[in-house]
Amino acid sequence: MLYESTRGSLNKLTGAQAVIRGIAEDKGLYVPENLPKLPFKPEEMVGRSYREIALEVLLTFFDDFKREDMEHCVNSAYDEKFTASDVCEINEAGGAHFLELYHGKTAAFKDMALSILPYLLTTSLKMEGITDRVLILTATSGDTGKAALEGFAGVPGTGIMVFYPDGGVSQLQRAQMVTQTGDNVKVYAVKGNFDDCQTNVKKIFNDEAIRAELKEKNVIFSSANSINVGRLVPQVAYYVYSYVKLIERGVIKAGDPINVAVPTGNFGNILAAYFADQMGIPINRFICASNENKVLTDFLRTGLYDIRPEVRGFKLTNSPSMDILVSSNLERLLYLMSGRDQELVNDWMTSLETLKFYTVMDSEPLMDGLKRFYAGYATEEETLTKIGETWKNEHYLMDTHTAVCKKVYDDYVSETGDTTPTVICSTASAYKFPQAVGEAIGCPETESGFDALEELNKKTGVSVPYGLRDLDKKEVRHKEVISIGDMEEKVRAFGSDN
Q1: FRET partner for 137 with CA separation of 20 to 30 A, picked from 195, 230, 264, 485?
Q2: pTM exceeding 0.85
Q3: For the chain, how long is the longest CA-to-CA vector?
Q4: 253 is a catalytic site residue
Q5: Could you give the percent of the chain with pLDDT greater than 70?
Q6: What is the pLDDT of residues 224-254, one digit of tens each?
Q7: CA 70, CA 382: separation in Å to the nearest integer?
């Protein structure tokens, strides 16, 4: 299995090489040159554990890994740090099946991929005989940062640098990051939004002068964002797992279609569902849910991706992990649906970078392919209403991002009448956003997220994830607030400081 860039480079890499590199030299993203088929029938995996299913899925994408090495990666990642009986849970409520992906150390779905990425990376380095230190550069809208920090903290041969938008994450998300321990970690608040952070991380990645400078210090770059295939591919496993479990529970028969609904910001999670579909999991519709930063909703409905300031503002919402206007992983979908047309994708991405918009309306195959995606969005008020009514009617507690998704899913059912069994990705614990969730279900108003967490626990009795307890009592270790222009300086200094 080789990986190719979405933008024109003819240089194809093995899975291990793609994981190490993170992003292609032409700024493109790596995609398997042929999407693999499942090496089993879903019904053959009934009764198997998450780890067993994930192992087989990962080996189909990374066939350059020895089986015993991948077993080590999977077993090390999905251990007792996950409190669910089988890594994640599926619970039925409100006419849908909630795939709870937040039972890991940081109480967000990013743990599912970022717990295994350090093992995939260190194994890849050994396979390639690389002894240089790896610097993980990561931009985060809230959850990726902490999950990456937890994954890489203390990992020999690595360092990690996380940039998050100052004021653009929840109080608990910020506390999780700024209290992170580990001699190999750096965390910076950036005066800007997530797109500013992400754009500059990509720019630094592709700056050959910076790469050469760090190489002299025996440091190379990689990424923990879902631009890295080592982050993206592990997410495919939980869609395969979900399908198997619905067969196991008698919800569907083997071969029956399901729908998948995903709260979507950077498009990686829903792209993983598309990969699962292409591998042989029969998915009927992909339901893409956005908040008021609804660039994806507008694109999937019209074929125009437009982030021009005069057209679209940027709003900080109560679902901050989706406060994104540049959805990086959409590039991979465009590549696949355009017939792997590198020149066309490069033109679109160049237009986005320079003109702040592009259109795919002239590509009939692509427009036809996008019809499999239903797109909608929820306002902040609609998000709170959905949390409140679901708690009242179903006694099921959702975070704000999952609530956005539930609202859009309900809209989809109202509009289409489609009763296909649907998996909703529940991407974070409600306790990560306790003030908004507390407001939605009638908790007393509080001044801090920490107080809100306690009130939410009193009101619901739902247990607080262990990774969120006593955050306000931990030492703040990362206090720097920097400008966008300072990001490059911090990266250049890494080899000297560490």
Answers
A1: 264
A2: yes
A3: 61
A4: no
A5: 99
A6: 888 899 999 999 999 999 999 999 999 999 9
A7: 43
